[in-house]
Design goal:
About 40% of the residues lie in helices and about 0% in strands. The model has no long low-confidence stretch (mean pLDDT about 75). The protein is mainly α and about 170 residues long. The longest helix is centred in the C-terminal third of the chain and has 36 residues, at about 130-165.
Length: about 170
C-alpha cells in the first residue's frame, strides 16, 4: 500500500544581516501652543499659564482663568434682564378666556373653542413667567375670538337678508 507522498521540505529562512548603523534619535517634544485669544467679557489668561505637555500633571483648577458670566441681551429687553422677566415698560397681557367662553356659547362654537384653548395656554404661560410666549398665545386667542364673532355676524346678516328677500321680515 502506498502512503501519501513525502512533504517537500520548506525553503530555508534567510536572515537579514544586522545593521551597525545607530538608531535614529527620538523626535523632539512638541512645542507648546500659544493660548487662544481672550473672549470678550472674559478675564485674560494668567501670565504663567501654559498648555499641559505630555508626561506632566495637568494644572490645578485654581491656575485656570476665572470667567464671569454675562447673559446676552434679548431683543426688546435691557441688557442683563432675563428672557422670562416681564419688561418694565410692557403692557399687561390681557386675559381673553372669559370672552372666548362667551363667544363659544353665543357665536361660532369651533372658533370659540380654539380661542379658549389658546387663552388658557396664555394664562398658564403668564403664570409660569414666560411673558413673551404668553403674549404670543394671547394674541392668537384674540384672533380666534374675533373670528368667532365675525362668523356669527356674517351668518346673522346672511339670514337677515335671506328672510328679507322671502318677505319674512316686515318693512
Amino acid at each position: 500500500a502506498a502512503g501519501p507522498p513525502p512533504a517537500a521540505a520548506p525553503p530555508p529562512v534567510q536572515v537579514a544581516p544586522q545593521s551597525t548603523a545607530p538608531m535614529p534619535a527620538a523626535p523632539p517634544p512638541p512645542t507648546p501652543v500659544a493660548p487662544p485669544p481672550p473672549v470678550a467679557g472674559q478675564a485674560p489668561p494668567a501670565a504663567d499659564y501654559a498648555p499641559p505637555v505630555a508626561g506632566q500633571a495637568p494644572p490645578v483648577a485654581s491656575s485656570y482663568p476665572q470667567a464671569t458670566y454675562q447673559p446676552p441681551s434679548q431683543v426688546g429687553y435691557p441688557a442683563g434682564q432675563a428672557l422670562h422677566q416681564a419688561p418694565v415698560d410692557a403692557a399687561p397681557i390681557p386675559n381673553y378666556l372669559p370672552w372666548a367662553i362667551i363667544a363659544t356659547l353665543l357665536c361660532c362654537m369651533p372658533a370659540g373653542v380654539v380661542g379658549i384653548i389658546y387663552a388658557s395656554k396664555a394664562n398658564a404661560l403668564k403664570t409660569a413667567g414666560n411673558y413673551v410666549e404668553a403674549r404670543h398665545k394671547a394674541d392668537i386667542a384674540r384672533n380666534w375670538l374675533l373670528a368667532s364673532v365675525g362668523v356669527a355676524l356674517m351668518a346673522f346678516v346672511l339670514v337677515f337678508f335671506a328672510n328679507l328677500a322671502d318677505g319674512a321680515v316686515p318693512m
